[in-house]
Write a structure and sequence with these properties.
By secondary structure, the protein is mostly helical. The chain has 3 domains: about 1-70, no CATH class; about 110-150; about 165-260, no CATH class. It contains 10 helices and 4 strands, in the order ββαααααααβααβα. The chain has helices at about 15-25, 30-40, 80-95, 110-125, 130-145, 165-170, 175-185, 210-215, 225-240, 250-260, and strands at about 1-5, 10, 200-205, 245-250. A two-stranded antiparallel ribbon has the order 1-2. Strands 3-4 form a two-stranded antiparallel ribbon. Helix 7 packs parallel to helix 9. The longest helix is centred in the middle third of the chain and has 17 residues, at about 130-145. The radius of gyration is 31 Å and the shape is elongated. The chain starts with a strand and ends in a 6-residue tail after the last helix. The mean pLDDT is about 85.
């Protein structure tokens, strides 16, 4: 049963009451709904938070715009088992060659579409700090979930036959930056301690040198196997973090004065 809020009469369903409203009160059900249920003339907004108005369904307003409920109620997208299976299937299909990127084998120098797309992305990212953060967070989540695996050794696009030195692998490690370099940069105010420049900043080992630390972790001679190099580099990174190796912030020019042969 439903009750007319204008006269108090009861009806078995909304359809019957709608006819009553039109005949006896000269009201459409939509106008009655606004005046007696919503108590507002405004059209409700989508509950996903997009701020867009929802549509009228004849007897009430939808809670969401079409398909926007997926943003809130997404059992598949919030299901770890389903996500894992999807990642496995996509990875299998990529390996089998079922997916072919449109840009495969092309470059900005040979394909105008790729060149223009690259410019568009660069302009968007470089002028929008929020977009930089969004892309960074997205890539991080992709790697954490396994959808975008981190490739090392021969699987990496930068593979050069395993000739990368342990020193370089360790220096370029993201964990080293996050846990050792970045805290030093914060401490030094993101400025060179010698000249005050904030351009091209490096972290200089002002106590135990990097070469001394590397030698501690190589027993005989530098290994040829890349995976072993990576393992040793990880230990070097952990050594910096655990032992709080002393470092200071220098710009490239000031760092070159201490290591002219390295040409920073």
């Amino acid at each position: 049963m439903t009750t007319c809020k204008v006269c108090g009469r009861e009806f078995k369903n909304g359809g019957v009451m709608a006819r009553h409203l039109k005949k006896n009160h000269q009201l459409t059900y939509k106008k009655y709904y606004h005046e007696n249920i919503l108590n507002s003339a405004e059209i409700p907004k989508c509950q996903c938070g997009c701020g867009e108005e929802v549509r009228w369904n004849g007897m009430y307003y939808s809670k969401y715009k079409p398909s926007h409920h997926i943003r809130i109620k997404n059992p598949w997208g919030h299901n770890p088992a389903a996500l894992k299976k999807s990642i496995e299937v996509r990875r299998k299909n990529w390996k089998a060659g079922k997916y072919t990127p449109w840009c495969k084998g092309k470059s900005a120098s040979t394909d105008i579409r790729l060149k223009e797309y690259g410019k568009k992305i660069s302009n968007t990212i470089n002028s929008n700090a929020a977009e930089i953060k969004r892309r960074s967070d997205f890539m991080r989540q992709q790697r954490i979930s396994g959808a975008l695996p981190t490739l090392y050794g021969k699987d990496s696009s930068q593979w050069k036959g395993g000739i990368s030195e342990i020193n370089n692998i360790a220096r370029n490690d993201k964990h080293l930056y996050d846990e050792w370099k970045y805290p030093i940069l914060i401490r030094d105010g993101f400025k060179c301690k010698e000249c005050g420049s904030s351009e091209n900043l490096h972290i200089h080992h002002n106590g135990e040198t990097m070469s001394e630390i590397v030698k501690k972790h190589i027993v005989d001679e530098e290994p040829k196997d890349f995976e072993l190099k990576k393992s040793i580099a990880n230990k070097i990174v952990e050594y910096h973090i655990v032992n709080k190796v002393s470092g200071t912030t220098l710009c490239g020019k000031c760092h070159n004065k201490l290591h002219p042969s390295l040409n920073f």
